[in-house]
Amino acid sequence: MCRRTASLAGAARFRLTGGMKPGPRLTPLAASLPATVPFVGPEAQERSRGRLFAARLGANEMGFGPSPAAVTAMAAAASEAWMYGDPENHDLKQALASELDVPAEAIVVGEGIDALLGYLVRLTVGPGDTVVTSRGAYPTFNYHVAGFGGTLHEVPYRGDHEDPAALVAAARKTDAKLVYLANPDNPMGSWHGAAAISEAIEAVPDGCLLVLDEAYVEFAPEGTAPPLDPTDRRVIRMRTFSKAHGLAGMRVGYAIGHPDLIGAFNKVRNHFGMCRVAQAAALASLRDPEHLAETIDRVEAARVRIGEIAAANGLAALPSATNFVAIDCGRDGAFARRVLAGLIERDVFVRMPFVAPQDRCIRVSCGPEESLDLLEKALPAALKAAG
Amino acid sequence: MCRRTASLAGAARFRLTGGMKPGPRLTPLAASLPATVPFVGPEAQERSRGRLFAARLGANEMGFGPSPAAVTAMAAAASEAWMYGDPENHDLKQALASELDVPAEAIVVGEGIDALLGYLVRLTVGPGDTVVTSRGAYPTFNYHVAGFGGTLHEVPYRGDHEDPAALVAAARKTDAKLVYLANPDNPMGSWHGAAAISEAIEAVPDGCLLVLDEAYVEFAPEGTAPPLDPTDRRVIRMRTFSKAHGLAGMRVGYAIGHPDLIGAFNKVRNHFGMCRVAQAAALASLRDPEHLAETIDRVEAARVRIGEIAAANGLAALPSATNFVAIDCGRDGAFARRVLAGLIERDVFVRMPFVAPQDRCIRVSCGPEESLDLLEKALPAALKAAG
């Protein structure tokens, strides 16, 4: 039996002693994959820093918190946590169907958009298949594509916007199975109006599916989302309770699409994967539109405030239709990374785009006044230290 | 846009109108899969019956409920649900490592054993690969194997026990990637002592992995589980907070194995898949061993009571090391299915094994006195109606 000493010796010891026995055989694909992490969580950063963050503004979480009705529903559901959640997500799907004016058969609920993206990639992408996305867009989608052996074809941003026409053209040229587009976009916060998105949908080549990630759509101006049309086989829409509903920690996402495609998720999804308490939280949040409206107002005010903080430091905040703001640090990626490090050092958790030229920015999530006060205080020093 | 009328017309309408556009291309494997459901949930049965169950004794949930400390922790964590859970599950893994006396690197936490089985199958099984299990064992494991294109080789039970020697022999003969064994077993409640399991581990052929599902191990007699040994590459152990900890609805499972294999889960898992509230619940439950001990005592008493109810009806309860009891209805599967239907009709939710000869039994989960009172009352009538 493995004793505590082994624990202290760490994993290295296992490679020695375990090496005597042959291990299980991974698939060639699994063997080829790196054990990557799409994002390092703030808790891991806190552990390595040995100090907690004072302001949590890096993961586009909703620092204003969930609906009090959702909190009450979670507390009430806690004592029922001994029961599995309904694997059909019936009540939540019915409520969404009514809210969105689409049939329930056009909706699948899953463990966040992350899980739904994984299921979708699994359904459609295998070794040799091409998938198109923007260079610097959502890494977790790329993680899934790589994880199922797909080949990513990346299209550059066009002036801090994803480029729907170029994405669709690339999908046509590469015979892509999927083309990913976030509207509004993460990490830049930019967006396209419904007309541009509808045009892209019209141009999706036969046999390709547009994955329209609308995680942030509640924060966008009216007219950003084209009408939902579940008769259209060319697009699937991804939405979430993680952002505007403030329930990131509960893992509730949903997708809207043609019922044939939505039904196919039943081939592969973790049927009993949804937390019962999460189902209750999402349902309660959906029934509290006042809180949602209030959250959206507060996010709008926070965006303005972040813009003011940026301006006070001689920096430009990019226009945003999301609950975060990209601040252009005015120089190159190396400089922005130093600014980011300076903020982290000053206990302000923020993140930034991965690729140039977007990596000239840092990305700040909207949050409560106190958190933005800390940002306001830390930014001048971080900029100064960044030289 | 899809109007409410479409909702009323249902999915059929979509096949008509949506048929005009080509759909996305599923992978050949995905296209070949049926849209099956491993289990129909009790809520779906309630909806189709138009009536709630009065006793929920079918899904091996823990009707005695979670630890009050876990309920308190969930209520407290609810207001923090706006934050993603720690993707590393650090605190829970550390607590498990300390509890189990293994290094944290030997533990992976996931969204229930169901999700962990899915990740494991994905890591190891592709089209053309063979997997060995018992005929009539856990269907969700089979669902994952089929879902990744594996070929199932099924070994019969041996007198209501899974047959470790035959399973391992079949794994050798078929060059299997995985061999699945639940100890204690579901759906029969039978078990093997540690020596038999250790023997099976010793006999696992090179390149094969024994998937030892120990979901019910807390209910089993001392000496059922062989010592944990994460230097051993031949076996992975699966455990859960769904059963003895009464947290089925929170989706927290974990696996213990060689750190190389455990590390490989990071290649494919949904890193941000764990609910923050679930992490808090599991941690609090782990810190309440008194409640766990009390639950195990109550389960033992309920097993005795179920045995008495069976005996009072001239039926035999099989010995059980789990939180459920298989009741031998004394005739064939058709008869047991009628008994089951009679119980369901009388608002008592129970399930039963799928295959002969185990399907001569119904499977009753342990639960509170009131639920067993209802079973006691319904069983004679159900037996009589079954003829």
UniProtKB/TrEMBL annotation, chains A, B:
One of its GO terms (molecular function) is pyridoxal phosphate binding. Belongs to the class-II pyridoxal-phosphate-dependent aminotransferase family. Histidinol-phosphate aminotransferase subfamily. It comes from Tropicimonas sediminicola. NCBIfam families: PRK08153.1. The keyword Transferase applies. This is Histidinol-phosphate aminotransferase. It comes from the Bacteria. The keyword Transferase applies.
